[in-house]
Automatic annotation (TrEMBL):
Keywords: Calcium. It comes from Opuntia streptacantha. InterPro entries: EF-hand-dom_pair, EF_Hand_1_Ca_BS, EF_hand_dom. It comes from the Eukaryota. This is EF-hand domain-containing protein.
Amino acid sequence: RISKICKEELQDFWLQLSDQSFDARLQIFFDMADSNEDGRITRDEVQELIMLSASANKLSSLKERAHEYANLIMEELDPENLGYIELWQLEALLLQRDVYMEYSRPLSTPGWRQNLST
């Protein structure tokens, strides 16, 4: 069954898509993952997202292990075992990653490659 969208909803969606801020992009991603629109992402929704991404990118090995990867993601983002993650948890993880990347040295520098090949 296809639901209809009104002009105002389409305009709001377009404004969200064109907003390049971190918060707007994160909200769009979260809304796409939250298939039942309850404000939470469950392990099943994480697994579905992994499988859709794997199918779109023709990554059969990722698709086969989607259940395992979904469990790992939930283990990290849902340490209390509530069965869901909320937007703030995903945001905290991504912001933590950005801090790590600022202080991390890339492993793909020529010096590292030379050391690995000897």
